[in-house]
Amino acid sequence: MTPTVGVLGPVTAWADGTPLPLGGPRHRELLARLAVAHGQVVPVGSLVDTLWERPPDGAVAAVRTFVAALRRGLEPDRRPRTPARVLVTEGPGYALRAATDADAFTSAVERAAGLPPAAALALLEDALAGWRGPAYADVGDRSWARPERSRLTELHSTAVERAAAARLALGRAADAVPGLDAHVSAHPWREEGWRLLALALYRSGRRPDALAVLRRARSRLVDELGLDPSPQLAALERDVLHQAPALELADDPLTRATASWERAAGPRARLEATVGLLRSLSRTGAEGLAAAREQRLATIAAAEEIGDPLLTARVVGDLDVPGVWTTSDDPEQAAAVVAAAERALPVTGADAVRVRLLATVAVESRGLPGPRGAAAAREAEALARELGDPALLAVALGARTLQVFDRCGRAGDRDALGAELVELAGRHGLTDSLVLGHLVRMQSRSALGDLAGAGQHADLLDRLAVTHDRPLVGVFTGGWRALRAAVEDSPDAEEQLRTAARLRQDSGMPGVIDGLLTLTLACRQVARGEPVTPAGPAGPYAPWVEPHLRLAAGEPVEVSGLPDPPPGLLMEALWVLAGSAAVAVGDTELLAWARAALTPAAGQLAGAGSGMLSAGPVSDHLTRWDRLLGGVGRARPDRGPGRSRPAGTSSTGPA
To answer: What digits encode the pLDDT tens for the residues 413-422?
Structure first.
């Protein structure tokens, strides 16, 4: 149980949503003084000066008593005479090794600065919901708290203004007005707040109110500070007076074009235009992705009704939805799309349509056992190379990146595919493939333990997301930064992992959402040698998580029937959970099976290829398993008839 210390308001602490007892005002003040230090050691003498203007006799002993009480509150499960992990003794004093809500708030505001409006707004709204301010509310006007309180107050104002700007960019001007009205009342010297409020009122159809706000801002600045409004505020006042077109959101020509198209286009032209629209929609964000997914099968059915097999083949192949995650968002739809693609394949020759159909089969078969997906991806790549079309080759390579999971430890192979995809897409201006290539490399470099290299790809992705309006990229780069915090054991790692999970909730990608936070925290706890605690539904990962929950609860556990993990980005992490459960219950057969599967991934970080989580270094687990069970894992047992082939012994050949 890892606590979080709350300072965005009265000082408090909690773990797994449960408040922790901290004692009286002096205990909380001492904890606040340590939180302000951001993990640095605070000497005992400084703590004495924090708590008393005139220290009494025995002040040092009193500080130690307060520390002991705080440790009991922050680590209620710590065993007697074991070292503290949260409030630690170092040198001449103490240091706090816990995440704070201020750390999470700061991180969220910084990350939101590089995101498109919808993703930024989700992140900022979540961060602002945790503000209980003012910061360090119950420690008075202490000199040691003043700089940090000022920093957080300024950051809070920035977050409020950025959230309002995002609402305006999304056409939600009326929603922005109430918060901005309260903001300028509390912070009347922030001209950006006045500017945003006036603009929000204007776009809500309240021009007189917008002018009144600007004149109120001018009056306060001139009368109380003797300052003229900034050029930006003065220009906005002129624009409001003259109803300048620049104040409105840009007129969208799509509505007019769509109306003309519906009047003039025939069935085939309408169908092919719909395909193009749905492809574009799937790249615009959560709402567009969901809309494209909803219309995909209907569009394929409409193509089949026309009765032209080649038209149907083109429609199925062109209706590709980008994929970097190996769990489908809609397995039933994926199976239907694969069936449609397989029906269309016989009418194609060695051409571009065939490459796209084969790539569709490979992408929509991701995460499923069996050789068909990998075979389709290999055929698509070979044919694309033969045709010499870089755009087709990029499509085929993208499909290959989702079909290199016939066994554990193939991060290097996937990284090579990603590197070729990045080079090819960069040379030929293929934006979708360039984004995909960097995502693949961010994931694969993480699996290989190269967090610095993965970080370079994450930074490039954030810039590409802004330049090319790809809001969903932030879901993956945000998840990766939380992964890095966990691998580096940052104090706020768990809070970052939870924040990344909240960002995923509105992504429109169920396959990336369902059960992933629970799996993430379970893998982290297993890697740290901690009991696995409940964290919500485990979704498709329940078979591998639930044995650990029962072990932590002291309940009987049976793992002999545990299924083999499916192929995909999380295969290694699930094998770690399976093997660790086998160690706990003494199931040497399952342990040997897990060890055989994981051995090809020795030297990699289990699960980090997802870019979302890590179950720790694979080699550490293999070494521990051999040491605990006397090397029994070095042999591969026969799990008996009817059992699937282990992921480390695929007979289908390389993908």
So the answer is: 999 999 999 9
Q: Which residues contact 91 (CB under 8 A, 6 or more apart)?
A: 41
Tell which residue, 620, 618, 595, 593, has the closest CA to residue 605: 618
* CA–CA gap between residue 355 and residue 344 (Å, rounded): 12
CA–CA distance, 355 with 392 (Å, rounded to integer): 7
Cβ within 8 Å of residue 373, ≥6 positions away: 361, 362, 365, 366, 402, 403
Q: Looking at the structure, tell me whether residues 575 and 540 fall in a common domain.
A: yes
Q: Which residues span the domain enclosing 213?
A: 172-248
SS3 93: strand
Choosing from 213, 248, 283, the residue where a domain stops is 248
In the sheet that 99-100 helps form, which strands lie side by side, from edge to edge? 18-19, 12-15, 4-6, 99-100
The least confident of 52-56, 262-266, 307-311, 597-601 is 262-266
Task: Please answer whether residues 387 and 358 qualify as being in contact, where contact means their C-beta atoms are separated by less than 8 angstroms.
Answer: no
Please give the tally of structural domains in the chain.
Answer: 4
What is d(CA 285, CA 120) in angstroms, rounded to the nearest whole number?
Answer: 12
Where does the pLDDT of residue 651 fall: very low under 50, low under 70, confident under 90, or very high at 90 and above? very low
263 in any annotated domain: no
Q: Are residues 547 and 460 in the same domain?
A: no
Does residue 42 fall inside a structural domain?
yes
Query: Does the pLDDT of residue 646 top 50, yes or no?
Result: no
CB-CB contact of 485 with 496 (8 Å):
yes
Q: Is 410 a residue whose pLDDT tops 70?
A: yes
